[in-house]
Amino acid sequence: MTLATQHLGIDLGVTNLKWAVVERQGDDWRSLDQGQRPTLALEGPEAVIGRAVEIGQAALERWPGIASVGIGIPGLYDPVEGSTRFLVNMPGEWAGRPVGPPIEAALGVPVALINDARAFGLAELRLGAGRGAVSLVGLTLGTGVGGVIAIGGRVHLGHDGTAGEVGHQTIDPDGPLCGCGNRGCKVRT
User: Fold this and answer.
1) What would the 3-class secondary structure string for 76-137 be?
2) DSSP state of 185
3) pLDDT tens across 111-121, in order?
4) I want to staple 175 with a disulfide (CB 3.0 to 4.6 A). Which of 38, 110, 164, 184 is the partner?
């Protein structure tokens, strides 16, 4: 019999920090716990990271068997350094901000970053409507737009975690200026 392992996922959203504790036993996954709290992104990256640490500490107290933490990032990240690269909709100085290392140091368990849309795809493959699917394409619609592609039952990340990225495509070349610096990523409303 395969031993069960527990993992914490935290979605670093612009509006809310959402979290879930999941358990894996062999190929079976189940959700054990979940919750959310306001991100309060205008308080800046250090405050947001601090709140993620608090979520992790509370989860570890409740579920002491947690073996790893995954952080869903609303944009581009550096998977090797565990830092953010470009979070167009998140206020504050996020470019190059270490996220994984300070959370890992505070919690004492391994931390990995993943784009939030790819995390959504992974959750759908393991726990949701995509369970058992060989291929999956998904879109996330929130503060921004994200995408995920799964091939062979695995989320395809590409060489730097950006495979499946569909946000910030030019829709209207004369459209309004976007937070990413491009014009026309969103249509006029």
Assistant:
1) EEECCCCEEEECCCCCCCCCCCECHHHHHHHHCCCEEEEEHHHHHHHHHHHHCCCCCCCCEE
2) S
3) 999 999 999 99
4) 184
The single residue listed with the structure tokens 């206020």 is: 91
Q: How far is CA 86 from the centre of its chain?
A: 13
C-alpha distances out from residue 37 to 15, 41, 50, 51, Å: 9, 12, 13, 9
Per-residue pLDDT tens over the stretch 113-165? 999 999 999 889 988 999 889 999 988 887 778 889 999 999 888 888 888 87
Q: Which CATH architecture has domain 5-118?
A: 2-Layer Sandwich (3.30)
Tokens matching residue 33: 């716990």
Three-state DSSP class for 66?
Answer: strand
Nearest to 145 by CA among 88, 94, 91, 93: 88
Place of tokens 């919750």: 35
